[in-house]
Amino acid sequence: MRKLKPFGVFVGSMVLIGSMLACNFPLMVSQPETGETNLTLTALYALDESATATALLTATATLQPTMTTTMTFTPTETPTPTPTNTEIPPTATETPTSTATPDAAPSRPSTQVVANYISSAPYIDGEWEDWDTTAYPMKNVVYGAGNWNGSDDLEGSYKIAWDYTYLYVAVKVIDDVYKQGANGYDLYKGDSIEILLDTNLYDDFYYNVLSPDDYQLGISGGKPDVHGEREAYLWFPTSLAGTKTKVKIGSVQSDGLYRVEAAIPWTVFGVNPYFGLHMGFAISVSDNDDASQNVQQTMISNVSNRHLTQPMTWGELILGQ
Fold first, then answer.
1. Which pLDDT score, from 0 to 100, does residue 207 have?
2. 10 Å Cβ neighbour count for 140?
3. When you count CB atoms within 10 A of the terminal residue's CB, does the N or C end of the chain come out lower?
């Protein structure tokens, strides 16, 4: 028998081993002829692809710098509705309170006065012959009726005019005794004139209490007589109280009467005048016939039921042409 050579035995062994290994190597497996997919192989391939992708992503992440992202949230704004302005601007530190209503409130006096506009200012000397305006009566006793002894004791009349700088007032007073020994706050305790002016008539038409737009101004024709020191003093509003030196005053006296003229700057009343302006108004005269003391004995007014602290009892002033 012929013996195989060692080299031939080696080659044959290698062929046999290669055939056995070929049975488990994935790339050498034939697909079934039926067309069915080998799920085991699909899973293996998927596993390999996933592992490959993971490896690539890991490598990329290692090469790329780490980025930190900060997210900023912008809040959504809710539109704010435009408010309705119900706020009533205040006229001063105090707003009067009224319990009256237009239907229930008493009507204001019908006493209505027109101040004529004048283009040429009168000469303030106490005489009113140069006034081409209406003379209004002042006969209503509103204080101290028990001390009043008739028209010879106290009665009056007045004229009123205006321009854009001054309110002009001229007063003729029938008075059998002229007595003025007071000044400043006590000015009303002697023979003197008082002007009440509501500068904001419509806004507080039904307010029957004093408010900061109401003014009380006193005018003295002279102390101790019409040749002496003349003075204008403001009592109300109290925040503005004091002697008003810019008021021009002229006065004269004759038997049984005296006359006073005054040019009052509108700035005293805080008013910007214009044609047709309506204001609350009363003009009055205080009288003292007691030579021994300063005291207000009587007062007459152009308004029949004038009360100082009740503006609804005042009349009305209109700035005319």
1. 85
2. 16
3. N
